[in-house]
Amino acid sequence: MARLGSWIEPFPEGIYVAPADIWVDPSRPKPRALVTHGHGDHARGGHGAVWATAETLAIMECRHGPQPGMAMAYGEVARLGDVDVSLVPAGHVLGSAQIVLEHGGERVVVSGDYKRRPDPTCAPFEPVPCDIFITEATFALPVFRHPDTGSEIDRLLERLHDNPDRCVLVGAYALGKAQRLILELRRRSHHDPIYIHGALQRLCDLYEEQGVSLGDVRPATGVGKDALRGTIVLCPPGALNDRWSRRLPDPITAMASGWMRVRQRARQRNVELPLIISDHADWDELTRTIADLAPREVWVTHGREDALIHWCALRQIKAKELNLVGYEDEDD
Ligand SMILES: [Zn+2]
Ligand SMILES: [Zn+2]
């Protein structure tokens, strides 16, 4: 009998599914690609044809121009070569999907990036039992336990209300984190205008077009200092300390990221108010997911593999790392 998953070939630049002649999240241009979600490290431009959710294709179009591709709805099965392929929600960002591959009586699930906790901007992660679970491991250390999102949002609102003469400037990734933050604030009854850096505009518009309404969101550019006192302003992390932020009214610098658990990362960016809000599974979510799916093997794509592989070994689950390159922390 052939080795389990012998038809799935990991290469440094991505996972090749030979009987479908297609790559999953390749970091180099390929003739045919399956893309889990729109973050830059998973969705590169320049592929011949892309299979992804309609939302992911729209995000890729927004970043890379027109995408020759096939939109797939969640749950729809496409026969590619000798493989049945379907996409199920990953709960990571709008349109994010796990890729379910079935061939020769084996089922392999490629998670892409995922999380288990609720996110008002996207469909929740759907567990699919499988023979091989190919998982990310961004926060795969027991020290990473993300707190409740609501309590982090409460801390942000408290600081805002205690400082009516200042603004709270929050660094948030343009795809996913910014929109989630806005909706989490709305859920905590914050309906005031939220001001955004120009670099967030296109993706906020795209979320709106895709049916995720964000409420009163306005460009921060051109708004006077006084009008910004007592408001929340969002910018990409790279703009937190640059010239752009100097015209804001004495900003309280915040950042929303799973890495804010690490004090040094907060200090590096001069973050006064670290908010631990992540779009990736924490240690408990990663291990719970493997327990839920009960796969025969776990393959780890990127992140901190060792602890997760050790955890699997203790439970008699075969696990290995794939050493893929080109995945970054863009989207934490
Ligand atoms: Zn990623
Ligand atoms: Zn991602």
Summarize the structure.
This protein has 332 residues and is of the alpha/beta class. Helices cover 22% and strands 25% of the residues.
Walkthrough of the structure:
The protein is an alpha/beta fold. It has helices spanning about 55-65, 150-160, 175-185, 200-210, 265-270, 285-295, 305-315, and strands at about 10, 15, 20-25, 30-35, 50, 70, 75-80, 85-90, 95-105, 105-110, 130-135, 170, 195, 215-220, 230-235, 250-255, 275, 295-305, 320. The strands form three sheets. It has a seven-stranded mixed sheet, with helices on one face. The longest helix is centred in the middle third of the chain and has 14 residues, at about 150-160. The radius of gyration is 20 Å and the shape is globular. The model has no long low-confidence stretch (mean pLDDT about 95). The site of one zinc ion has 6 residues, from loops.
